[in-house]
Amino acid sequence: MSYESLQADEIIATVARLKQRIDDRFPDSGLGRVCDHLHDISRQASERALWIKQPIVRLRIGIWLLVAALVIVIGYVLLWILSQRADFNLPDAVQMVDAGTSTAIVVGGLLFFVISIERRIKRRRALKAIDELRSLAHIIDMHQLTKDPERLRTRWIITPSSPQQKMTAFELDRYLDYCSEMLALTGKVAAIYAQAFDDDVALAAVNDVEDLTTGLARKIWQKIMVLHSFETSARL
Questions:
Q1: What pTM did the predictor assign?
Q2: What distance in Å separates the CA atoms of residue 123 and residue 202, rounded to the nearest whole number?
Q3: Which of 28, 32, 97, 149 is an S-S bond match for 22, by CB 3.0 to 4.6 Å?
């Protein structure tokens, strides 16, 4: 096993184990279904990252043929102009250099656009996949949103609009911990794209997802710490 890069297969296996742990503890729960979706996305991420990493051969061949054809046409035009004008004075030379500079700028921009087509196609696909992970992180956060450890206090007064709380302290601790693990794995799945595609825009999107999941997990751990403080107070 390489310790220099993330192994997509290991991440997929870890998500699958987490899904089984959630099902064992909370059968037929919404959190288990979300984890199952994360498992599907992680498998898709492995396939997409492999596709992004490999060159699009047909597209590259088409691009280089187009570039070669453009160079040939420009060369032919230059030779034709030189053949039509046997003598050049200074104003003609200045005018020709100015026109050539403008043409070179336009052609250079066109060549850059054509050559970057493959990168832009891969970037669009990577960003779409990363956006799925960002949405999934918010869905995970919604599942833990109403899991408030304060409701386990004996002095807590339930109102008709209060969310139902049927978990014990231990079950709530496990539930919140599973949410935290799912958020961490969501960030790791996003990192698969970062190591497969060396692109600043995609890397920034991956960093945004990792910052998001870290921030959401921090809120969950605050709840877990509150829950543990109750247990410590009860023992004292």
A1: 0.76
A2: 6
A3: 32
